[in-house]
Amino acid sequence: MIEQRAQRIGRAFGAAAPHYDAHAGIQRVVAATLAQLLRLQPVKPAPNGGRLRILEIGCGTGLLTRHLRGLFPDAEIVATDISAEMIAQAERGGDLAARFLVMDGEAPAFDGAHFDLIASSLTFQWFANLPSALDRLTALLRPGGSLMFATMAERSFHEWRAAHDVYGLQAGTPRYPDADSLRAMLARHADAFLFEEEYAHDFGGSRGLLAHLKGIGATVPVEGREPLVAGQMRKVMRAFDKAGGVCTYHVAYCRVTRLAEHRA
Question: Which terms under GO biological process does the entry name (predicted)?
Answer without folding.
Answer: biotin biosynthetic process; methylation
